[in-house]
Amino acid sequence: MSTASKVTLALTSLSAIGIVVFVHQAQTNDKAAMHAGVIRDLEQQRLKRERTADFAMSKALEEEYRKIQKVQDGDA
In which domain, by residue range, is 29 found? Predict the structure, then answer.
């Protein structure tokens, strides 16, 4: 086998290995980014549920206080 063939084979092999490694790392990074998106979405849903619960509790307290106290609007 000539020297040129050996160099070509070596460069082709190294290029193929480099491409496989690059694609594997890109897939790993994409998978991690997608997982982070899921975690972020779950956190946003949890915060929304908490805020909704806080609003409902606040509304219930307001109704309870309105029963106990006579509140007049500032418009009258």
Answer: 13-67
